[in-house]
Amino acid sequence: MKNTHVTTTINGDPVEYLCDTRETMLDVLRDRLNLTGAKEGCGTGDCGACSITVDDRLVCSCLMLGVEAEGKKITTVEGMAEGENLHPLQKKFIEYAALQCGICTPGILVAAKSLLEKNPNPTEEEVRFWLAGNLCRCTGYDKIIRAVMDTAADMRGAS
Amino acid sequence: MALDDRKDTDFKFVGTRPDRPDGHDKVTGKARFGADAHAPGMLHGAIVRSPHAHARILRIDTTKAEALDGVKAVVTRADFAHGLSGEFGFVLENVMAGDKALYDGHAVAAIAASSALIARDAAKLVKVDYEILPHVTDVDAAMAESAPILNSSYADASVPEGLHPNVVRYHESGHGDVDAGFAKADLIIEDSFKTEATHQGYIEPHACLATLGSDGKGELWCTTQGHWIAQKTCAALVGIDTSQLRVTASEIGGGFGGKTTVFVEPVALALSRKANRPVKIVMNRSEVFRATGPTSSTSMDVKIGMTKDGTITAAQGTFRLQGGAFPGAPMEFSAMCAFAPYALDNVQQIGYDVISNRPKQAAYRAPGAPMASFAVESVIDELCKKLGLDPIEVRLKNASREGTKASYGPRFQRIGLVETLEAAKSHPHYSAPLKPGQGRGVSCGFWFNHGGETSVSLALSEDGTCQISVGTPDIGGSRASMALMAAEVLGIDYENFRVTVADTATLGYNDVSHGSRVTYASGLATIKAAKDAVNKLCKRAAAKWGIPEDAVYWEDGCAKPSGANAGNFDPIPLAEITKNMGSTGGPISGHFEATPEGAGVSFGTHIVDAEVDPETGKTAVVRYTVIQDAGKAIHPTYVEGQFQGGAAQGIGWALNEEYIYGEDGRLQNSIFLDYRVPVASDLPMIDTVIVEVPNPGHPYGVRGVGETGIVPPLAAIANAVSAAAGVRLRHLPMSPPRILRALKAQTRED
């Protein structure tokens, strides 16, 4: 068993690690780097609970190998808040009860943030289709969609 | 313990919508779920599973696996307790097969190794010799004379003679004379229905971290709806004393009934004992589908008679449920819930619990009720159509009310079914125009709700804040609700509370977070524990003032003298009393332990508009409204969340979700790509109406709200599809191929 050395950037910090070539990025984040915010719900890219961004692109970290992070810029849910200040999406998710059990929440927040960076004024349909890769079994999505739409409106107002 | 111990309904905190205490950790990724725990020296476990639906295990050869570098322990059935019977026996047989593998995915051995990769590699090196046996996975086929026998000793005394040994339990209930009732009907409809098995579909797979020493002392961290049931079950399965196993519940990533039992936990404990190291096991999604959950699949016959004015004269139902390879399919709940919304003079219901080569069924949100409701409410819809009657008027005409003798026996206390139907009738949704190609469906639903063993402890701090320990894992915001109820009693703000789900060493036994019981039972216990603390606070004030204890009362967070005779003293706020509590008699806390039995039953009415694409057979839900009696909504936003979540799961059950078994008895769709739960783009917004008809069995009138919401959607959507496309679907899910077949059959008939 020979491990590979990887140098990357995670949430703005330079990070180095060794990993087996079979390990997914999600395995590396969770088991080697103790960043357990991203969750494994399926391991097949169907549930989105492990969503991260890689060079600003939304990715299921269970479908990416740990060695593929070499030279990339990774962000996870742990990088969303700035210091003690929560991201507007994080605040709104609490306010709107857009989470019940919370296991899908990190992935949905990362995905929603990625949507708003690309499209600050999404329609309900656009939000629903963008988040179609993030399963939530508790909420029926109603409060999640409302929280994302309302955050978008707030952020447009603030900028 | 009754409603009348609080006369006013003018709440200060109950009914408000503060932020949940676990919100911050859950949006930042800090919340620790089952798979998020690590321990020094931890090993990783992997489980070897049967690829066969039914096979005798001839030999398990673990030598190659054990020889792999990094492998520290291998366990098989021999490493667990012997001689268990009853439910513990079934659970052990389910978590680790004995002589036979009983379904595709049944665990037969397990490995602990220094990394997850090595454990998985080693699992592939375990060689199991099987003698493949004939299998059966369909409920009707499992009851047929020619069906293979899974276990000839499982049937209990309730089963009538002459039935196949796969029928393991039988239920019959009802009242009146159904034959006489049918004779009075102007129209009788009798139909047969089937529903396929669905999975609870929680996004968090089962996960645990276990430590067990040869001294018989253990620690277990796991994702569970009930850590005391996990404690006693695991202790029995690995043969240690219950109190020597301390179990801590992680944050739980959804359960819906599926995390009310154990799967990997006893296996991790057995591996840990053998390796003398902590062992973590995390299931992958395919293991979750193949070996945990699911619901029963069903085969049902329903016959209902009605007069021209819409009065139901008699109702009869037969509910056959397969619950996998072990007894326990909730057929009695199907039978008892089926006709509960209606006041019937003549009703009879029969249930069969059937075993088959599938995973052991687990509870799923109102277990057994949604399927029965699908069959009954579909037949009522057909009767309304044929007689030209409005479906809400007919339901109102026959609705169960206070005093009605329920179809399952007792007389209803105060209930809110009529109120939900009236709210549905006057809701703008019910009168909104439909577009061409759309249809509207309505259905009622019922669930019992549950009390269960409950212990709560509450302790005041010197600064006047309060910590509450509850034993019911928080699956929908219950920590916020507990704080609101305690705030109401103590008269101090919500922000002063910290609510913790305590471990098994901290509190007495608590039943599982199931049966929609948490806000009811833990809520009741929290109120009682807070009142216990209030009594002690009043006592301290009485001592200070030198007046009798009963001359002091509690109001707005202060002890006050009760009237002029008691004396003229300034009120003492809570924080003033706690500040000096160490020197005035010691720490002040409140406790309550009981098994409350006043869980009020719950009814709901759903309205749904659906649109069917005649070319693809795909059904779109275009509008949805949930109306349900919550008794009293402690945190209305979280009540809405329960309604919406129940509806969404019901929509999945109605339209997409199903376990698909091949001829070989193997599950064909064990990942989320193939077992498709509703995604955001499948659903509309889900409107909610909270009806509040107080439950006489709770101090604030609370009824559980978690489960009823999944009962009406199956029939409501089937009724909407029938109205939209002119075809009656009697087999769930109403997936595009089934709808297309129904449309084609209808064309041929025309």
Automatic annotation (TrEMBL), chain A:
Signal peptide: none
InterPro entries noted in UniProt: 2Fe-2S-bd, 2Fe-2S-bd_dom_sf, 2Fe-2S_ferredoxin-like_sf, 2Fe-2S_ferredoxin-type, 2Fe2S_fd_BS, Beta-grasp_dom_sf, Diverse_Oxidoreductases
Keyword match Ribonucleoprotein: no
Name of protein: Ferredoxin
UniProt keyword Metal-binding, yes or no: yes
Source species of the chain: Parasedimentitalea denitrificans
Residue ranges occupied by any 2Fe-2S ferredoxin-type domain in the UniProt entry: 4-80
Domain of life: Bacteria
Pfam families: Fer2, Fer2_2
Keywords: 2Fe-2S, Iron, Iron-sulfur, Metal-binding, Oxidoreductase
TrEMBL record, chain B:
Pfam families listed in its UniProt record: Ald_Xan_dh_C, MoCoBD_1, MoCoBD_2
Alphabetically ordered keywords of this record: Molybdenum, Oxidoreductase
Region Disordered, annotated ranges: 1-27
Residues in Aldehyde oxidase/xanthine dehydrogenase a/b hammerhead domain copies: 28-134
SUPFAM superfamilies assigned: CO dehydrogenase molybdoprotein N-domain-like, Molybdenum cofactor-binding domain
Keyword Oxidoreductase: yes
PANTHER family for the chain: ALDEHYDE OXIDASE 1-RELATED, XANTHINE DEHYDROGENASE
Protein name (record): Oxidoreductase
Taxonomic lineage of the native organism: Bacteria, Pseudomonadati, Pseudomonadota, Alphaproteobacteria, Rhodobacterales
